## 1
Amino acid sequence: MDMRMGMRTIAFACLLCARIVPAASPDAAAGRAAIFLFGPAGAESSRQGARAAAAAGRRWLSQPGSTAELRRAGSMDALPLEAGTPAKSVEQAFLDAAHQGRDTDPDTFLSSLDAAAQSLAHRSGLRLLVAVTEEPSLSSEGENLLQHIVEFCKSNSIRVVVLDPAEVSSKTAGGSFKALGEGTGGTLTRDPKALEANILIVSAGSKLSESPYASSGQPETTVAANLPSLPTDLPVHTRFVRISPNGSIAFGTQVSVSAGRGGLTTVDGGPNVENTTGPMRGLFLVESPLSALRFDTDDNAGTYSARARVTQIARNASGKIVWQASKQVILHGPLRKLNARREGNLYYLREVVLPAGKYTLEATVEDLIAGKSGGVREPLRTGMGTPGFTVSDALLVRPFNAAADKFEADQILQYDGNAISPMLDPEYHANEPFDLQIYLIIYPDRYGAQPQLSLEVLRNGHVVGRSALPFTDKLRNEAVEGGGMSSMVGEQKHEFPYLATLRGVQFSPGEYQARITIRQGTNALTRVVDFRVLGNAPGAVLASAGPNAAAAAPARAEDDEDAAVTLPEVDPVHLNSGVAALPAIDQRRLWEDATASALSYSSHLPNFRCRRETRRLTAPVKSSDRFHEADAFIEELTYENGKESYRTVEVNGQKSTTQRVALKGVHSRGEFGSMLKSVFRPEVATQSKWTGRAITGGVLCDVFDVEVPVDKSNFVLTFNLRQEVAGFHGRVFFDQEAGLVRRIVFEGAGLPKNFGLQSPTFSLEYGMVRIAGQDHLLPLRSVLQVREGRQVVRNETQFRDYRKFEASSEIKFE
């Protein structure tokens, strides 16, 4: 959708199935639902997992009354699978989904896992979630989210079966993901051939249970009255912004009356009032001002830090929790930017699907340093809507300010390539010109008339200003019509994001409403948002609004949501290069901050130990995507006083004390500082150019293209005792908040043609890891790929189990 998914999302397959029982069984009507989810994995593991999942899917579909569907990467839409579909077609669909999920980052995978559990919780009967993945390295935040998923699955009777085909983690699997399986009544298996049998065993041991979304019929006011009161030490605001699953359901409306032209007119009932005949798909938003948090400062290091936890809960009409999400948020940056940070807001956003019914939304924010918290509850209702076309809820927004706002989400709100921040409790100041910006999504009848829009501003029920709004986009792309199966690129557009902007308006103090009316043919929909203007001075009610007010045109269908990064192919991410360019002065400041952090990176790290797990894959050059595992090993990495040392503990699943130099093949090192310095050392004089923004590890980053020539490079490769230095070019991803490097991606060049290794590419991803009560930015995973003769060698490495290491010493008196 064009409310852009700024965060790269995982590809996964969803299979919904009826219970395998004889046709005469009374339990058959209760049904069974299962989702197969594909996550990060090596080439061979993902292929084996996909084939095993496809076989299990065909088995489910062979049972009378069973249904199944397959979901594509980054989409909540589902492709139904028919029982008569050829086996090769089903297997290919699963192989494609597994391939797309191979390189997803851990945070994205967990978000998809959470979304899959949410989808299952809507269904009655047996609920089964099958996760096919090699257990990824998780940050402390990722561990917290995984624990939340375990608790959510337990409370909603969702059994989880984990398939981890990798050999490298044979000794470590059984940690977090084993708890996910066994803690929910499921299991963890390592043999793809045993997946179907394990599913049948887990299913046979499960009892059917009622969907927690079923209402008890208890009056909503009684439920709210029986809930414990929420703390009020921190100001918190919440909003459910509905977005349509298709073009035939109307959202955000309260009343429907006959219009003079014979059509239907619907009026928005205000925040969290929903009228629809189907499930609600929307964005659950939480907002809290950062000025309310306590910030710790370190004058010696020149940094600030704050810690908060945001929790979202949706309760059904009986008060039972049917959906819950929680995220610990860490704010860290240079002390000189603290004042700007305090002027911003903390946002938390998750996409949620709720069946029709009555709900209570609950949001809390905890200040983990000050030990105080705040919360708020809002009702959410459903009812009848208007057929034909629909419009999402309207939302007052402003441009996203990375220096002030902190956005934690499974997607970023964007319009026309620019990130935007929601305003859940909008306030403006009297007699100060400002831009009034209202965001919504239009879902028109593609074969109907061109939509017409108008905006009214009301105060105390009286209209104080009007403006016509243009709608210039075409509803249909004639080039892709004419029958046949349309491609994802050429398919018709169903939703049209719209940003109405009144520039330079001025209002006197008071309570206001902005009301947008969208007409298509004889039908009209109205969306209303409230805002207030503060101050005492008198003045004109509306200084600048009317026919000439500016309104941003809807995003064009031909605009690419994300341009895929093709450098290098070893570990791609998605880059949004269509955003407004970062000002030159901000580019220089961001580069300077990152340089200072990178050059002092090693000095700020504690002494620690971790497990370094590496899988080495090979593939023919002519078929470089057909990797198979050559070997795997686990090392204990000790980082002490800025130096790395390695001790082999396992080779190919067997305990080993083989020294690293005796392990033939390709190795890498230097992830704990050397790689960063290779870009930022002053003598390198790296050429850099800002190129766009991207999400990596759940963090919005500015991306710079970089290039280092051979004579300035320390990208050293060794082959048969011969060393050569490669120049490189690639991309560096900077955390906008603190100027920290979150990801580096390099491609080497300039190696002699007679050297045994060619075309080296390297990717390294960082995440926040907690060691001895402190948060540190540390490597989570790396990928190194080279061409060696007629084969491609690929090392996939994960860093796990970080823990503090303290060297001991003793003095003996002889």
## 2
Amino acid sequence: MRGFIRSLLCAATVMALAVPASAQSVTLPYDHIHLNVPEPAAGVTWYEKNFGGMRFDEAPDRLMFGSTRLIFLRRAGADPSTGSSIDHIGFSYANLDAKMKELETAGVKIVQPARDVAGLFKLGFVEDPWGTRIELVQDPELLGLHHIHLRAPDTEQMFTWLLEKFGGQRMKLKGQIDAVKYGAPNFSSMWILVQRGESLPSEGHAVDHLGWRVADLNAKVAELKTKGVKVTSEPRPLKLANGTTIYYAYVEGPAGTKIELVQR
């Protein structure tokens, strides 16, 4: 009987592992976030001053946070990120009280002062001059650019879609918040959180779209088409300021979330 029970348990374990493995894609490294601003140079300067991103030679309209780019698109009159399918982005600091005081002294708009959330971490909210809502958390396990917070009527649909298309590790942030974590060798980790709520498509809002890195763009786009994903822009080349040519395409996720795929 003991051997029979052991066999049943082993079979159940194999089945449990096989189901997600068959549906989930290989994890793609997270690549960038695109923000809409009237003047990209002003966006670069503001985030560099207040959040410490690094300029690099790829192009003058972007900053690097770890291995993740913040890229600034020229667009006046973008709608605020709050209420869009990409509601806000998050940064983590070892001493949140000190960071919030620093930002307040610099004249940054404080939306919600720092507060402790039991069992989670200390957090607060600010807003950039162009309508991007920014959450600040005190999470020593991942400092710097920390997470992206999506909004969708059906959170489980969003999580399932992300796992099926871009892989990732489904888990709970601090054991409390449902999330997908993206990470790969030589790439920074990034949390994707999803809150339940009605939302508007992200394009044209302060946080315009998200970006994942792919090794073979044509192959990935072809794969996504077989999975019924709406491709809004076919693969095309783009020559950057430093002479490098990349290839990119756009797809649409749940709740109208605009997503870029890039081959560097």
## 3
Amino acid sequence: MTKAWSDSDPIETQEWLDALASLVEYEGKERAQHILQKLLEEAERQGIDSGIAQWVLPYVNTISVSQQPVYPGNIELEAIIEASIRWNAIAMVMRAKNKAGGVGGHLSSFASIATLYEVGMNHFFRGATKENPGDLVYFQGHSAEGNYARAYLEGRLTEKQLINFRQEVNGEGISSYPHPWLMPNFWQFATVSLGLGLLQGVYQARFLNYLENRGLLSAMGRKVWVFCGDGEMDEPESIAGLALAGREKLDNLIFVVNCNLQRLDGLVRGNGKIVQELEGIFHGARWKVIKVLWDSRWDPLFAKDKSGALIKRLNECVDGDLQTAYVRGGAYLREFLFNTDALKALVADMSDEELGQLHRGAHDPLKIYAAYAAAAAHKGQPIVILTQGVKGYGLGTSAEGKNIAHNALDMSEEELKAFRNRFKLPIKDQELTSFNFLKLKNDSVEMKYLLAQREKLGGYLPLRHVVSQPLAIPTLSTFDVVLQGSADRTMSTTMVLGRILNILLKDKTIGPRIVPIFSDEVRTFGLEALFRQVGIYSPVGQLYTPEDKEQFLYYHETQSGQVLEEGITEAGCLSSWIAAATSYATNRFPMIPFFTYYSMFGFQRVGDFIWAAGDMRARGFLIGATAGRTTLEGEGLQHQDGTSLLSASTVPNCRAYDPAFGYEMAVIIQHGLHEMVAEEKDVFYYILAMNERYNQPAMPKGVEEGIIKGMYLLSKGGDAKHKVQLLGSGTILNEAIAAADLLQKDFDVSADVWSVTSFGELQRDGVAITRANMLMPEQPPALSYVEHSLQDHHGPVVAATDYVRAYADLIRPYIPRTYVTLGTDGFGRSDTRENLRRFFEVDRYYIVVAALYALMKEGAVPASMITAAIKKYGIDPKKPNPITV
């Protein structure tokens, strides 16, 4: 709390206040703000505590009436159009509810944000033209009904589609939320998972500057608009990118936070003021803050309030008070807010009904336009508009402004009548409950106006329009230095990745399109050669002399840098990756991102972003480096990845691979480029890379197809009485190779060794074949790729991986014989690779025991042979189960 001081010289105080008033009148608010900030800085320098929160200003509109520009549109026509859209959004939800029952929908979210959208649609949001890809608008996910309702008026969606809202299975409906996967010609961004849209928006705005600073694509004055609710700002992703935006002065970025003071269940800050809290956060991150709190009906009151009593009272009210006052109406507002003689005098000439018409700024197009115009013109900072609205605005007494607004799925006949009257809709009483959609006549002034405004701005939004731009990619032979192996030199697959990136970056066609992205582990991965080769992107270049300047691979930042090293933020990196991976659609300029990160910090930490990337049809490479649970010696539980491949297998358009050898990685990356860049398929690749060094063999002939499909025969066993099939992936493949030698030497068992690059791809093939066989039972059954590959190779099958058993178990249904899997279930721990593999029971000796056990299950060898192996290799049968310790 600010300490109250007695005024020992009120005349001097008034002189200071008069000086400030004169400064505002003759030089403007911005100059006054600058002077005040300088005074505060000087006070701090002299050790004077001002006792005030510097970054929180009074609870009033930032833009005064005198600063408001003339509204350029026909506000009466816009009101008619907006009212029609509001009705159609309601009708769509109600018809879906009545037709399909429990498919759901939201009434209150769009009701709160409608005017914010309409002012933008009529005057600011630029659509794509032949010359300019247009603005990028991240619409709030829960308000999709409004986007559909407008698109219906524009003639872009049919009545049948609206009737089938949230009923997509038969191919006639439209999706619940913004989903580009389901509506690839409509939605650009997946935003309904709260918080993801805001962080994506920050990095999207930054990526536009990155493209321009690298000389690849002009930014063309494009803006990134991000809409969200105040409750959504509690998500950590919502504020994670604010400092980056401020630091890089992203004045092409505009956040619009709809502060209706409510979350899904109730108030955001009932005991506080969310607008003021957010103002402090954004100011601290060096954003320009514009507040739109009160509509035009409040202006005369503020003008009459010469003493500042009204502003003082509004500053005192917490959000819970403001919500209650709105819901209970004019009479309550009079008693609650205007509770002193001075305040009562302000509204003495106003009726309770007139007091009830004092609305919030998010529903006043004049105030919104002024804020948008100021935001669009502002230079040198990102901009946030904090606008105060009402959840469920216009929906009636059962929902408007109330805690239950988010879950409102119905309106009574009386509420429908009130809604119609309030928004002056041409609907008769008997037609209200039929929920017929309103359609503007083609020759009406409203329709002509709606279309003309969008034509001025370039075209419709939201709209996803992909222009085919296939690029020529290097042939596999280009990677010959990798395909030939490492001879006597030991190399990790991460080092091989460095060689592959080096080759790609030198390619004249796709080299400039490569976007290497890292959180903060470039040196850890041994890829610091990129610092010298292409530089680290910085919008201001390098303003300092790096301490390692004399080193060959010094930390080199440059405005034209190609590497995006984002700092320790996997979520930020994924957002940059998504911006690059969807550039083919958003910018009509394909880019090829490689985001390399600690594999354990990938799907586990930012899986929601990866799922959104799949929804948005991203194309690019995710590289899970330092992968595996036993390859990363010494790091322990929190760092060792045993599950990401299993997570990746659940993302439908993610193709996940675990290459053991460099040539496998080269084949996979070259094939990925062919699919995504040449064939323009909407898939993305997750490829693991290890830091364990071993000899990299040359590529055998004819294995390319098997590498991509998921498995191929690496080596054939010798002659022996008994036969087994050993499957290995990643570095554990080397253990399988060693186990095959032990089986032959110690037990006269022949083992074929298979390299499995992707159990996930094998499972998808198996699922597809099984489904086809089930639905065409009279046709000869087809074989899955696994069955086809193993059909001429006899004996039980043993699979060993550096990941949980469930990963190798993905193909169990397609192996109609004994199948034993070994994996690294349980928590990781620190130790050497050798000790870790023995602890998790995935080393060569356990593979031998598992192979003998599988043979015993099939009656081929006695149990005594397994006992002998256990004794020979020093295995303790009483060792604790790694899953439980």
## 4
Amino acid sequence: MRLAIIGSGPGGYFAAVRAAQLGASVTIIEKAEVGGTCLNCGCIPTKTLSASAEALRKARQLGEYGIDCSGEVRPDMSRIMDRKNKVVSTQVRGIRSLLKVRNVKLVEGRGRLIAPGRIEVEKSDGTKEIVEADKVIIATGSRPARMPMFPFDGENILSSDDALNLTKLPRSMIIIGAGVIGCEFACIFAEFGVEIIMVELLDRAVSTEDREISEVLERELKKKKIKLLTGVKVEKVENRPDGMHVFLAGGKELAAEKLLVSIGRQLNTEDIGLEALGIKMGERG
């Protein structure tokens, strides 16, 4: 059996390896880098930064354990990011080797279904390749959700992807959204010494979890001196010479050097040929 998989994140490459083990001829199509969101701009890089933040916290407490650590302990963001990049690149090489060992063909480019069992792959150099298969798995993942009010520019208005590539720490940051991703970045950057204000439309942090979990997390945010505003709506955002200004319903104005927008993720299902094949999608894609 010929199997084609669009997307090489945890869903895609695990399926590829298992199918190859069972005897299928497997082709995996990836437009960016193997490993998907989890490895390149999600779980792995954020946990690497979190480990650096935790090491910094422990280093600041060495005196409590009778250890003399003279001088100021402070984060070097450039070196922290270098370490993060090395961790990611090592695992990327590991996945590429795993695919090669299992004889999984990797086609790099954007895949689009043009007929049942036929995928057109547009490569970075503009050339195209047709991949034919008996079965197709769609594992295209997601990306940071966008809203017209918060146009990402990678410099002042940041997505979670952008936040993973900062080489210089801002003095202050406003985070829109107190979900899992927003809270994780808030804790990391607060430990690095950034003044954090979080703004959440709903009445509590991580509102998709049990209320008890929200209560515990909110106490931890307070301990880290992270200011959390819940049940408030953002009316307008302005990028001024002195930084980002966020205007809330009721007239309150917030200001910070950077704005990190963490309002969820949207699915990568548009323009991959689903509609042409008669596949219906829900409201969220």
